[in-house]
Amino acid sequence: MNIKSRLILMNFMQFFIWGAWLLTIGAYWFQNKNWSGAQFGAIFSTMGIASIFMPTITGILSDRFINAEKLYGIMHLLGACTLCALPMVKDPTTFFWVMLLNMAFYMPTLSLSITVAYSALKSQNIDVVKDYPPIRTWGTVGFIVALWAVSLTHNETSANQFYIAAAVAATLGIYSFSLPKCPPLLNKAAATTKTFAHSLGLNAFALFKSPRFAIFFAFSLLLGAALQLTNAYGDTYLHDFAKMPAFKDTVAVKYPAIIMSISQISETLFILAIPFFLRKFGIKYVMLFSMIAWVLRFGLFAFGDPADGLWMIVLSCIVYGMAFDFFNISGSLFVETQAAPEIRGSAQGLFMMMVNGFGAFFGSNVSGWLIDKYFILGNGEKDWHGIWLSFAGYALVIAIIFPFVFRYKHNAALKFAIEHA
Questions:
Q1: What is the 8-class DSSP label of residue 382?
Q2: DSSP designation for 357
Q3: Residues ≥6 apart with Cβ < 8 Å to 306
Q4: Which residues contact 228 (CB under 8 A, 6 or more apart)?
Q5: Where, by residue number, does the polypeptide cross the bilayer (predicted)?
Q6: Tell me, what's the pLDDT at 129?
Q7: What is the DSSP letter of 343?
Q8: What share of the chain has pLDDT > 90, as a percent?
């Protein structure tokens, strides 16, 4: 098997692990546990907490002490153990700590997988810019296959979703040790020439002194929160229609994860449209389109249903591709073109920290509290219409404010890079 095929398999399993439970854990939680929405929000915030500190720690370890592919494998093997432990937990507090431990093992593998892939491709003189994106696309395919596998086996509300993810995590952990070696590149002598803050990537925080970067990172946090809202509640929303006789036998209620997987399919397609939109409108307006797409994502959910309104749910899933890709990709390009070359890596890490770290923590906790306080009906059911409209209002406020406070002009260097990609 050539190196590209091996990296495709790695990426497929990497995101299969996440897809097996990320969108369906809400259905498992609310269908099987008599625990609150605020507690579920705390569970989902573990992703953000882990993203704040773990990638930095594993980055230091792989830079100085241990091969990246070995560390990658160890993290997945430990993650498999915690996934197996989750179904055994009997109280929400313990569930929180076990999930936090699982996320501490999983989240850094996202960046480690890139490090391993880049190192393997460069070792064989393969063009990373040209050949890595098609390899990474198979990660999204893995996520979709996991959703379909869990849904078609009727495990969306079952603890089996964690066992499925654990089995693949253990397989990937073992497989990782066979990947090309990716040894530490920063020897001790070189390490001593850097300050402690530089080693930790803290020098990138100086970007907050720039009003433009400070505003950009603030909106990154707010959009990261929006992403957590759809991940946490989308599948659960469709499951709740099963309590209504008019909808319980519809395809969307029987296989909600398959319906939600349209979002990931859309994501792969909108990636292809990004170069055109960036050339035509520039980064600022592409990011604005993302925010408008979030308004549509939530608004369509508010008025859709699994029967006559299924088209709105499907359209919401299609719109997700624009909502997710347009901000994340254009945002990373903004960082790449605007940050100084010596801190671009740290700046990209800071961008991810704001989106997947602080944004995820903020979105998970605040949404859980708001739903418990304002959107629980007298019969104990959730007011999904109100929930999604409030989320849509949140995204609309962000979209209205953004173009007035974010000052940026499409520069020639970026346009040249896009046209010659």
A1: B
A2: I
A3: 238, 241, 247, 250, 251, 252, 253, 313
A4: 44, 47, 48, 359, 360, 363, 364, 367
A5: 7-30, 42-62, 71-89, 95-121, 133-150, 162-179, 213-233, 253-278, 285-303, 309-329, 350-371, 386-406
A6: 58
A7: G
A8: 29
pLDDT band at residue 383 under the 50/70/90 scheme: very high
Return the number of other C-beta atoms located less than 10 Å from residue 269's C-beta.
Answer: 12
d(CA 194, CA 187): 12
Do domains 1-193 and 203-421 share one topology? The answer is yes
Distance CA 325, CA 335 (A): 15
C-alpha 264/C-alpha 138 separation (Å) is 11
CA pair distance 419, 400, nearest whole angstrom: 30
Q: Which fold has domain 203-421?
A: Growth Hormone; Chain: A; (1.20.1250)
Flag whether pLDDT at 421 surpasses 50.
no
- Domain residue spans of the chain: 1-193, 203-421
In the block, residue with structure tokens 């078609």: 152
Fold annotation for 1-193: Growth Hormone; Chain: A; (1.20.1250)
Residue type at 123 in one-letter notation = S
Looking at 179-183, 272-276, 320-324, which range is the least confident one? 272-276
Residue 169 three-state SS: helix
Predicted confidence band at 189 (pLDDT cuts at 50, 70, 90)? very low
Q: What angle separates helix 310-338 from helix 344-352, to the nearest 10 degrees? A: 150
Whole-model pTM: value is: 0.74
CA 4 to chain centre: 24
Query: Distance of alpha carbon 136 from its chain centroid, rounded?
Result: 14
Alpha-carbon span 418 to 5, nearest angstrom: 27
The packing angle between helices 3-19 and 160-176, to 10°, is 160
Check pLDDT > 50 for residue 159. yes
How far CA 271 is from CA of 140, 324, 327, 392, in Å, comes to 11, 10, 11, 23
Minimal CA–CA distance to 94: which of 108, 82, 105, 107?
82
Structure tokens at 250: 């519809």
Alpha-carbon distance of 411 to 421, in angstroms, equals: 16
pLDDT in tens, 27-84: 787 777 777 667 777 787 788 788 777 776 776 677 678 888 899 999 999 999 999 9
* Residue in the block written with tokens 């590209």: 4
Half-sphere exposure of 250 (CA within 13 A, CB side): 21
